[in-house]
Design brief:
The chain has 77 residues and is an all-alpha fold. The chain has one domain. The chain contains 3 helices and no strands. It has helices at 8-47, 51-61, 66-76. The longest helix has 40 residues, at 8-47. The protein is elongated, with a radius of gyration of 27 Å. The mean pLDDT is 79.
């Protein structure tokens, strides 16, 4: 009967494992997001396209009109 403390040690142990599990999940998600961002950045670096090149392509495909193209071009330059 340990002076009314029976079973309380399990509660503390479970609390610590829950926190450690949560930390592991956060770290895994962070690593996945970081890895995906690096893949996206390396893809842009390999193509060698600048923001202006991408803007020109969007205008050529008709995704944006001339006014929007000129506004964004002015922002870039």
């Amino acid at each position: 009967m340990m002076n009314g403390f029976e079973g309380h040690s399990w509660g503390m142990g479970m609390g610590w494992w829950w926190i450690i599990g949560l930390i592991i999940i956060v770290v895994v998600v962070w690593m996945l997001v970081k890895g995906l961002n690096q893949n996206n950045q390396s893809t842009n670096q390999r193509t060698g396209k600048t923001a202006l090149d991408i803007l020109k392509e969007r205008y050529a495909r008709g995704e944006i009109d001339k006014q929007k193209f000129e506004e964004q071009k002015k922002d870039l330059l």
